[in-house]
Automatic annotation (TrEMBL):
This is Mut7-C RNAse domain-containing protein. Residues 1-102 form the Mut7-C RNAse domain. InterPro entries: Mut7-C_RNAse_dom. Pfam families: Mut7-C. PANTHER family: MUT7-C DOMAIN-CONTAINING PROTEIN, MUT7-C RNASE DOMAIN-CONTAINING PROTEIN. It comes from Mantoniella antarctica. It comes from the Eukaryota.
């Protein structure tokens, strides 16, 4: 699915699977997309998908793999003990300042917006069901 604000893109014949995001405000955009697609927030699934290929980040790296990796900075190897790899592309992840910042943003912004949009969508669905009865 392509999320876009470009109405002209939606009119193209070769544009399939696109959704128009109408608001300029990022929080309201998130609420609109969440409500439309029925997105839910699951804390246990935070940071479990690879940013590169969307594969599952689930495989724990062995100490030998970490030591042999030229990709992981030496400073990080010395200060961090837990590393995970994407099962699809092998990209390595660890908990550090970037992940803490992402988690803070998710907790303070994403979770409340998605939860509220989902709640409002459920209320609208209940009202429609009551009207049918």
């Amino acid at each position: 699915v392509i999320l876009t604000r470009d109405r002209r893109l939606l009119l193209r014949k070769d544009c399939v699977g696109a959704y128009l995001v109408e608001d300029d405000d990022p929080k309201r955009q998130l609420a609109q997309v969440s409500a439309h697609f029925g997105l839910t927030f699951e804390r246990g699934k935070l940071l479990t998908r690879c940013a590169k290929c969307n594969g599952a980040v689930e495989r724990r790296c062995t100490p030998e793999e970490v030591a042999a990796s030229a990709i992981i900075p030496e400073k990080v190897k010395r200060s961090t003990s837990d590393f995970w790899a994407c099962a699809r592309c092998g990209k390595v992840y660890w908990v550090g300042p970037k992940s803490h910042k992402a988690i803070d943003f998710i907790n303070s912004t994403v979770e409340p917006v998605v939860t509220m949009a989902n709640h409002e969508m459920q209320q609208q669905q209940r009202r429609r069901e009551e009207e049918v009865e």
